Every structure is written in structure tokens, then in C-alpha cells.
Amino acid sequence: MKVLRIIAHLDMDAFFAAIEERDTPAFRGVPLVVGADPLGGKGRGVAATSNYLARAYGIHSATPISTAWRLSEAARRAGKQPVTFVSVDMQKYARVSENVMRIVRRFIPRVEQASIDEVYGDMSWTGSYEEAQRLGCRLKEEIHSEERLTASIGIGPNKLIAKIASGYRKPDGFTVVREQQAEAFLAPLSIRVIPGIGPKTEGMLNAKNIKIVTDLRALTIHQLEGFLGKRGVDLYEKARARDDSPVEEYSEPKSIGEQETFESDTLDSHTLLTQLDGLARGVSNRLHHEGFHSFRTVVLTVRFADFVTKSRAHTLTMATDERAVLRREAMRLMLPFLDQRENPQRKLIRLLGLRVEKLSCEVNPAGLLDRFFTLPP
Fold it and tell me: Which residue is catalytic, options 21, 118, 258, 290?
């Protein structure tokens, strides 16, 4: 007899912005963006979160803050409310996240925190979608009562469907998709709802007139593999609502990294190598704080002023935790970007990122939240 599998995905609504609105009455009812200082349109960071009023202007997470500023100014000139920009207060958001996750665990014993504001829960033990929905409603009510914040929940037969369902009726939504409904639920949706389909893949598929999940299903597994390699096989399964990935109470991070966007694009070697040294220090500190004993792979990411991004990696023959080794390998990967080998056009550099992979040892659960607090570039 097949065991009934019921998975929930809870996603807080516009989390950072909602916390700021909750704590500052003046922010309520106005377009709000939490992120870098726009500096009158010259800022170089990104929007971490925008509320739904700001999203109506086209400002979303990871929108360049300079673009957010221009969209705000366009709205102002059209007679609409301009955006209020607020700097990130990650310590406050971390405290609220801990509170929310504590509430979630009262209702769902087995959970997997996917990020600072989203979590999966295995609700198979409830025995029915009706009981899972009842508990989910109580969970939403409890979060609203204790934290004065709203969350959206999706319930489905697997993590894939649950996650898509949680975003289906945002904000403050609740969508239940039973196993027999899953394929029909996906069919009319944009292919972008499928994890693994980003803007580039979407553009490539759209060019082949593949725009919704039904179109994707019309392709054979061999066609998708031909277009996208191994990813195509995965998308073939996901388009059919298939996902066997378990809810893991703790998922060990695959990498630890830091990155820095510069105030001004540069190719000054002293500036770049100094920043790289600081990134190595930050990565090393996080490695030990999160309880890892060693790493084997070092990855450098370089984003040029024209937003072309390149990554280079080197895997050591033996694992290490020495900061000096990390610095040395980072410098070796960086140097070709300062000359003709990796930068023949002498393009200025906008961002540097450094991360370590192939980590070993048990992680310190107290450091779990830290890995969720890196903002996008």
C-alpha cells in the first residue's frame, strides 16, 4: 500500500519589508524597499526585499538599487508615491526568523529550513490533506498573532508542488494541491515556476515556443537532454510534478562564501587584492564558526563592469582549514584577471566573490542561520 506523502512549504510574505512595516508605522501603506542605499541613483548594491506596493513598480529582490531608484522616480513623476528605501537590519531579521521557526516546530515536528524566511515541513503523519490544512491554518494564525506577520503556505505531495503552491496566492495565501491534482495544477503555469528554469533557460525555451508547463511536457526526455544536458532530465520529471527529495531536518551547506560589490568599478591590483584578502578572512571565520574542519575547493567569482561574470575554481589534493592556503589559492585564481589571460580587454571589475566547497566535519547548528544571511550580488 502506497504511503500518503504530504509536504508543506511556508514562505513569509515580503519578510524584511514586512518586519520594517510592523515596527515603523510610517512605513505602512507606502512602497518600501529594504536594501542598499540608492545614493540618488548611484548606489551599487541591490534590493534585498520589496513590499508588494514596490513590486507593482517592477522592483523585486536582487533588483539593482540604482534601477529601483529610477523606477521610483518614474513613479513619482507619474504622480504616484515614491519608494521609501530602508537599510538592511539582518540581526533583527534573524531574531524574527528564529521566532517564526520556533512556532513552526510546535506544529510540524520534522522541518527543513530552506532560507531565513522559508521552511519545508513533512506533514505525512497527519494522515490526510484535510488535517494538514487544518494545522496549516492554525500555524498561520499563530505566526500572525505572535509576530504580527503573514505567511503563505502550500501543501502538496512533494517539495516541488508545495513550494510552487505557497507562491500561488501570495500574500497571506494557502493553496492545497493533492497528488491527483498536481499535473493539472502545473499545466497552465509559466515554465519559470519550475526550479532550475531561470531567465536564460526561459529565454532559450521561449524561443522554441515553450512558454508554459504543458509546452514543456510536449518535449521528450531526449529532446530536453539535448537542449539542457542532465538538467533536462530533471526538468522532464519536474514538469510531470515528480519530486522524491526528502524533507531533511538539517541539510549540510555545500559551500561557504562571501562577496563584495565595489563602490566604483576598478582594476587597481592593490584594491582588488586587499578586498580579496578580506573575503578570505571572512570565509575562514565562517568556516570555523559553523563548525567545519576543512575545505578542498576554492572558487573565485569575478563580475566585470558590463555584468559579465566568470568563476574559476581549484581543488586541493588534501583538505585544509588554513587561512593562509585559502588566501594563496584565491590570489592564484585572481591574478589572471589582472592581465591578458582572463581579462584581455582590461575591463574594470564590479564584484568579487570567494567561496569554499567540499567541506568536511559536523556543522555547528548554532551557526545554521548565518548561511542564510548573504544578500544577492
Answer: 118
